[in-house]
């Protein structure tokens, strides 16, 4: 795909390339200085692609000097900015770097392999088959390191079939991996041939790291098939090359950090070690017995090392079983989240129509605006929406992700609405609902009335279901006043069937129902669980008192604020007049006919001009001929969804503010909405006042530019 959003500033682009050049020359100090300068300039230019590339180079420098934690931190910073662009090449590069870090520097193979697989996905999107080849080599190697040969062979097989993309260094590794796999399969002759091919190819390369790995794996193989003398000779070659690589790496890192004194000391240690080896070599030549003893000791040490490695890998194998179980649990959690998201969207969409049409009836027909039934319908629809949100996102409640809000309300009015809303349930079992509110309670309180209503609705409806031809009492008393806080004791009492003592400890658990027969009572078993968790948000607990055959009483205490000045401020904020003297043109892109009607009615009631289209293609067509002040964009549409429609609108150079009008949870779509070019998000169903605040703000902001 085209990477048109990368390197838009030639000067900054040049800085990034020079920083990369210095890094490849191992001049880490200059590379860091230039990459940080490039980062500052790219940040001022808001060029996410160049920001990502700068962070990528900084991370690579830290990796080169073994600052692994810092390196991973900056790689993830780089990835965050890369994800804001359409540049899939840099995403692939970053994921591959993270895979290398976790697999071969941190030994976190499970995480590293996941990063490699993401890198391959992005390489395939850009048709970069060469990088797909190299990343498959890394994955195969990683799986072999954790002794998962069968899984690793799936990737090695792809590598063997695509050797046209290999370079000299990769040829060494591929031959070595084939040798490891064939050794595992006990095909020793073929394995031996591949190891020798790897060593032959490694001797032709300037870079000797891969040759070192090939010698080590070959020595392990030879020892495994009882060719101990050859294993020892191969191990000596490995040691020699490893020392050369180690010395070069140590000198490079010491030079890059400017540690001159440590460098001199290191060189003296190297000379000392080399002199000792010369003396050892001379001594060994004088005595065959010493040579034999040395070989035996080396073999014993090698055996101990191999035994230790086997023990470690055995433990890793058991750990992998736990990791696989964890992956299964994570996949199940992901499926649960996806299911919740889908169900949430499907329920919120019709609820938007119910709430909207109820509001339209209340506004357009004054003769029924005071109808108790219509008010109950409106309240029940809003309560159902809140209940749906809480049930479908009960995991958020458990993780304390729900934040209480402040509304001004009258406690008697709220309880009366609850009573009226549940009248149908009370009539079903011929029950009576009584209300007793302490007159000492202030007229207006401040708090989250919606969550309080949910708690009381759950408790009262529960009481009505388990009571026949009886009475349910809702009692509220003022028990304490501390400054502006009024502590209210709520009690919901019934004279129904009661709850057995043995069941009282478990009724607040999810999906638990007690004292019911197959068809007597309905419900999810979530009501009391939600009550307990919502009370936890208020910092309160619930008390239960019940006897079989005598009834049940639930009680709890919540503190609400009483502040006349703050109450007036909240009321003024809610009742703000958002009508405008100007007639703004709003385009609504929505495929649901009922939601089209509701949204259009809400907008036109505010004296705005509104046009509605059914899908993204129709939106693009109308925008060719007409100019709008703002676009309300549904997300889940046939033919072309809201994200893709927004991207195409932006490609046409149209800067009209676009607001996502969706039933999806906001947290799920925020990143994708911003990337697509949307300006804001509002979740259906919504309060019209919130919609018009967003509309006015975005239009005024655009006009001010």
UniProtKB/TrEMBL annotation:
Keywords for this protein: Coiled coil, Kinase, Membrane, Phosphoprotein, Transferase, Transmembrane, Transmembrane helix
4-aspartylphosphate: residues carrying this PTM: 634
EC assignment: 2.7.13.3
Entry-linked InterPro entries: CheY-like_superfamily, HATPase_C_sf, HATPase_dom, His_kinase_dom, HisK_dim/P_dom, HisK_dim/P_sf, Sig_transdc_His_kin-like_C, Sig_transdc_resp-reg_receiver
One Gene Ontology MF term: phosphorelay sensor kinase activity
Protein's UniProt keywords contain Transmembrane helix: yes
Coiled coil: 256-283
Superkingdom field: Bacteria
Pfam families attached to this UniProt entry: HATPase_c (PF02518), HisKA (PF00512), Response_reg (PF00072), TPR_10 (PF13374)
Reactions catalysed according to its record: ATP + protein L-histidine = ADP + protein N-phospho-L-histidine
Annotated transmembrane regions: 289-309
Occurrences of domain Response regulatory (ranges): 585-699
Residues covered by the Histidine kinase domain: 342-562
Identification of the protein by name: histidine kinase
Native source species: Flavobacterium nitrogenifigens
Taxonomic lineage of the native organism: Bacteria, Pseudomonadati, Bacteroidota, Flavobacteriia, Flavobacteriales
């Amino acid at each position: 795909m085209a990477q048109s959003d990368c390197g838009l500033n030639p000067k900054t682009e040049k800085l990034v390339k020079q920083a990369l050049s210095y890094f490849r020359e191992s001049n880490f100090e200059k590379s860091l200085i230039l990459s940080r300068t490039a980062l500052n300039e790219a940040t001022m230019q808001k060029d996410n692609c160049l920001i990502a590339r700068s962070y990528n180079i900084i991370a690579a420098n830290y990796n080169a000097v073994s600052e692994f934690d810092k390196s991973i931190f900056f790689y993830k910073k780089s990835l965050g900015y890369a994800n804001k662009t359409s540049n899939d090449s840099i995403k692939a590069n970053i994921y591959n770097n993270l895979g290398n870090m976790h697999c071969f520097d941190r030994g976190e193979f499970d995480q590293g392999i996941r990063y490699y697989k993401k890198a391959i996905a992005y390489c395939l999107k850009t048709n970069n088959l060469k990088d797909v080849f190299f990343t498959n080599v890394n994955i195969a190697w990683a799986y072999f390191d954790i002794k998962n040969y069968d899984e690793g062979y799936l990737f090695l097989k792809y590598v063997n079939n695509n050797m046209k993309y290999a370079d000299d260094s990769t040829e060494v590794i591929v031959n070595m991996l084939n040798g490891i796999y064939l050794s595992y399969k006990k095909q020793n002759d073929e394995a031996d041939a591949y190891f020798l091919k790897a060593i032959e190819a490694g001797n032709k390369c300037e870079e000797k790291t891969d040759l070192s790995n090939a010698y080590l794996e070959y020595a392990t193989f030879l020892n495994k098939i009882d060719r101990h003398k050859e294993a020892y000779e191969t191990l000596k070659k490995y040691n020699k090359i490893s020392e050369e690589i180690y010395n070069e790496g140590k000198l490079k890192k010491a030079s890059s950090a400017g540690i001159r004194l440590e460098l001199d000391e290191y060189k003296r240690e190297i000379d000392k070690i080399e002199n000792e080896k010369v003396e050892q070599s001379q001594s060994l030549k004088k005595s065959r017995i010493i040579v034999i003893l040395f070989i035996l000791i080396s073999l014993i040490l090698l055996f101990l090392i191999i035994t230790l490695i086997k023990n470690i890998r055995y433990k890793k194998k058991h750990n992998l079983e736990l990791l696989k179980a964890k992956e299964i649990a994570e996949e199940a959690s992901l499926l649960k989240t996806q299911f919740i998201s889908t169900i949430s969207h499907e329920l919120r969409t019709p609820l938007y129509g119910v709430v909207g049409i109820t509001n339209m009836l209340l506004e357009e027909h004054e003769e029924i605006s005071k109808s108790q039934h219509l008010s109950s319908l409106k309240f029940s629809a809003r309560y159902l929406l809140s209940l749906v949100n809480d049930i479908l996102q009960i995991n958020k409640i458990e993780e304390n992700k729900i934040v209480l809000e402040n509304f001004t309300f009258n406690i008697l009015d709220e309880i009366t609405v609850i009573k009226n809303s549940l009248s149908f349930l009370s009539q079903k079992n011929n029950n009576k609902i009584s209300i007793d509110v302490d007159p000492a309670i202030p007229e207006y309180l401040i708090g989250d009335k919606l969550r309080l209503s949910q708690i009381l609705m759950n408790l009262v409806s529960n009481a009505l279901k388990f009571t026949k031809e009886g009475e349910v009492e809702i009692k509220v008393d003022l028990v304490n006043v501390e400054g502006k806080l009024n502590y209210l004791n709520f009690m919901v009492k019934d004279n129904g069937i009661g709850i057995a003592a043995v069941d009282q400890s478990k009724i607040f658990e999810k999906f638990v129902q007690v004292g019911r027969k197959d068809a007597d009572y309905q419900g999810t078993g979530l009501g009391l669980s939600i009550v307990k968790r919502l009370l936890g948000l208020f910092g309160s607990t619930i008390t239960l008192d019940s006897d079989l055959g005598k009834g049940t009483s639930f009680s709890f205490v919540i503190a609400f604020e009483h502040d006349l000045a703050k109450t007036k401020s909240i009321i003024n904020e809610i009742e703000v007049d958002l009508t405008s003297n100007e007639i703004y043109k709003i385009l609504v892109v929505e495929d649901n006919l009922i939601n089209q009607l509701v949204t259009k009615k809400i907008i036109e009631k505010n004296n705005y001009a509104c046009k509605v289209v059914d899908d993204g293609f129709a939106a693009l067509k109308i925008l060719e001929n007409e100019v709008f002040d703002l676009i309300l964009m549904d997300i889940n549409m046939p033919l072309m969804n809201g994200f893709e429609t927004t991207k195409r609108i932006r490609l046409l150079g149209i800067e009209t503010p676009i607001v996502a009008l969706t039933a999806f949870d906001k947290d799920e779509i925020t990143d994708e909405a911003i990337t697509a070019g949307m300006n804001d998000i509002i979740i259906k169903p919504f309060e019209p006042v919130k919609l018009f605040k967003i509309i006015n703000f975005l239009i005024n902001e655009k006009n001010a530019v």
